[in-house]
């Protein structure tokens, strides 16, 4: 599970993203890196197994 916060101004609630599935390839995430989803950039705040 990843906890994401949008970059930029505003006090937005965190977004929790769960990656699930037997066919999903292993992905490496680091706290502080950014991800782009649907044209918006998010910063990874927490990574949970």
The whole-number mean of residue pLDDT values reads: 85
Alpha-carbon distance between the two ends: 6 Å
Number of strands: 4
- Enumerate the spans where pLDDT stays under 50 for 5 or more consecutive residues: none
Please report which band the strand proportion falls in: under 5%, 5-15%, 15-25%, 25-35%, 35-45% or over 45%.
35-45%
**What spatial form do the alpha-carbon principal axes imply?**
elongated
State the strand order across the main sheet. 2-1-4-3
Main sheet characteristics: 4 strands, antiparallel
Tell me the number of helical segments per DSSP (H or I, 4 or more residues long).
0
Structural class of the helices, strands and pairings? Answer: mainly beta
Radius of gyration over alpha carbons? 11 Å
Q: Would you give an account of this structure?
A:
- By secondary structure, the protein is mainly beta.
- Helix content is 0%, strand content 41%.
- A four-stranded antiparallel β-sheet has the order 2-1-4-3, with no helix packed on it.
- The chain starts with a strand and ends with a strand.
- The model has no long low-confidence stretch (mean pLDDT 85).
